[in-house]
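Feature request, filed as a ticket because there's no other form

It would be nice if the structure record came with a short human-readable summary line next to the tokens. Right now we just get the raw output. Example of a typical job, pasted below so the devs can see what we mean:
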Amino acid sequence: MKLYETTDYFDTDNKHTRLGFEFEGMFITNPMLSICARFEVNPIKEYGLTQSEVDRLIKFNQLGEINDDV
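Raw output as currently delivered:
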């Protein structure tokens, strides 16, 4: 999966750079959530990411601790 950075004003008036990927026309920055962001998912099964990609997204976007049980 191709990961790329985008800079925007997500949820604040401050500019943020986030790492993400496109999936079904949406830009995903939290791979642990479904495309609608309402449900937790396994990002490897749901989006076809590798564990390395998941870890990179979590670290870059400061989403919490890296989970080895994905």
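Something like this underneath would help us a lot:
The CA atoms of residues 7 and 17 lie 4 Å apart.
The first strand starts at residue 4 and ends at 8.
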